[in-house]
Write a structure and sequence with these properties.
Elements lengths: L2 H19 L3 H29 L15
Protein name: DUF4167 domain-containing protein
Organism: Sphingomonas olei
Length: about 70
């Protein structure tokens, strides 16, 4: 993991810890939102690179509707 990704991962962990410690619902939401953004920086940059290189395909066919 490169330095930037390590930083973003540590920030995400920190935000998750703060979300678990706080009692204010708005603060909890903010911490989880920030953690999500940091984790996107860690993991989605790799996913975007794979898709851009043609190693992965995105399934655009929606799942069949259930008639039950």
């Amino acid at each position: 993991m490169d330095d930037d990704k390590e930083y973003y991962y540590r920030r995400a962990e920190s935000e998750l810890e703060m979300a678990q410690r706080t009692e204010n619902p708005e603060a909890v939401k903010a911490h989880y939102t920030l953690a999500g953004y940091y984790l996107d920086k860690v993991y989605n940059d790799d996913a975007a690179a794979i898709v851009a290189s043609g190693e992965a395909a995105i399934n655009t066919t929606p799942p069949a509707a259930s008639l039950s």
